[in-house]
Amino acid sequence: MADREDAFRKIYEANSKKIYHLCYGYTGDDDAANDLLQETFLKVWQNLHKFRNQALISTWIYRIAVNTCLTYLRSEKRQAKDELTPQIAENKREEFSEKNEQVALLYKCISKLEESERIIITLVLDEVPYPEIADVSGISEGNLRVKIYRIKQKLTELYNQYERL
Fold it and tell me: Where is the RNA polymerase sigma-70 region domain (predicted)?
């Protein structure tokens, strides 16, 4: 049992920040992201014995996190893009320094993307290797590079629109 707990602790330490960012990218809400992070790792703990090393463990965890986030959004009958209301964004803005304001704005822009685009760009921001992102998203690496380029263009347009406001 101690070995299992040690293994889990290492897995959590290696992946929790990236999974939090993924969850935050879906919800735009710190509390919801933390809840989804906990739920994701509860599922990891409960299913660790089922992991078969056919993929990287981080890929397996990302899949669990994505499914957890999607289930949450469906059960709350919300779309992630509606999560960052102007009031929430305004409250967050007061908490952030100028650099953090830019990060908050980036996440607001990310929340406007389509679901598959949010998954991909969040993984890119977390510096997940492209082969792993391709595996998580179920597309070829070549197609992934094209998608990332287009997502970055979209994000730049969205970001510039907000900057003008």
Answer: 11-78
